[in-house]
């Protein structure tokens, strides 16, 4: 290069990678309606499961709603691809994470409860949590996914069917089209199971969902 010439070739910027950057940094900033680098984070955890705790802490320990929203979305996607990774963290889903007062976290927790493997006691606690969502939440996405996961649990435990049917009938006329559509679709599946459930309970009383305590996992 001659004296006075300037090298116009820009230095190459390193490609962003969730495997090198902290998840909290990857998931922060930008438009709260977008998911940012969630897919990069999901890929990183899928290939490096030892980083799952780092992702979980982005949900439970961050004060940033955008980070919590994106981290819970990433966690649900990891759970969908590799549900066994979340099995050791069921107590966290049913406890600390379920108490975060943010709709986007609550609906992802509801989704994951329909994906992870639950003991009978954990299933009872999960059903109670989902029913609480259905009783108290006004967020249509929380309601949709809580209804959907309660249906998953009812397929595993017929004792939950009467409770599920009560909510399905409650929401079949909802002004939220997606919610009413889901309720009617599930009603078509579960209505036929009512007689079978009633035959085990001649009184016709709805089983009471109560919280139970699991042994340590």
Task: Describe the secondary-structure layout.
Blueprint: H1 23-27, H2 38-47, H3 52-60, H4 65-81, H5 90-94, H6 103-113, H7 120-136, H8 140-156, H9 161-171, H10 177-190, H11 194-199
Describe the structure in brief.
It contains eleven helices and no strands. It is mainly α. Helix 2 (38-47) packs across helix 4 and helix 6 (103-113) runs parallel beside helix 8 (140-156).
Q: What percentage of amino acids are in beta strands?
A: under 5%
Largest sheet: none
Count every beta strand, where a strand is a DSSP E run of 2 or more residues.
0
Order of helices and strands: HHHHHHHHHHH
Average predicted confidence as pLDDT = 84
The secondary structure category is mainly alpha
What is the approximate shape? globular
Total helices: the number is: 11
Please tell me how large the radius of gyration is.
Answer: 22 Å
Domains, number: 2
Task: Measure the end-to-end span.
Answer: 67 Å
Helix content: 55-70%
Low-confidence stretches: 1-19, 202-208, 210-217
Task: Tell me about this structure.
It is a single chain. By secondary structure, this protein is mainly α. It has two domains: 21-117; 139-202, no CATH class. The chain is 56% helix and 0% strand. It is built from eleven helices and no strands. The protein has helices spanning 23-27, 38-47, 52-60, 65-81, 90-94, 103-113, 120-136, 140-156, 161-171, 177-190, 194-199. Helix 8 runs parallel beside helix 10 (177-190). The radius of gyration is 22 Å and the shape is globular. The termini are far apart. Mean pLDDT is 84; it is low at 1-19, 202-208 and 210-217.
